[in-house]
Design goal:
Layout (H helix, E strand, L loop, with lengths): L1 H12 L1 H30 L5 H21 L5 H8 L10
Helix pairs in contact: 2-3
Length: 93
């Protein structure tokens, strides 16, 4: 009986989709962070020139923007609750 209740709560809240979305989001962020770290390493070793640095940096920024734009489709309510601060009650002021 406990398992049935737990499964119904689990299915109702959609925890599996949230976990999958979080795992995918974290993985994509990790890959961008590693590419950025590799870029910084190349800069420190003077292996990359200015225009190539700017181009690769812009590619990383665009990829990061795409991750943040399209990853939160499954858990959009959680994203909005973190993105938008609560509106203060104007009547209390």
């Amino acid at each position: 009986m406990v398992a049935l209740v737990w499964f119904s709560i689990y299915g109702t809240l959609g925890l599996e989709s949230r976990l999958f979305a979080h795992r995918l989001f974290a993985n994509r962020l990790w890959l961008v962070a590693e590419r950025y770290r590799a870029l910084l390493s190349e800069v420190n070793d003077n292996l990359i020139d200015g225009p190539a640095l700017v181009q690769r940096r812009d590619e990383l920024i665009a990829e990061l923007d795409a991750i943040y734009q399209f990853t939160f489709g499954v858990d959009h309510a959680a994203h909005e609750s973190l993105r938008l601060p609560p509106v203060p009650d104007e009547r209390a002021a």
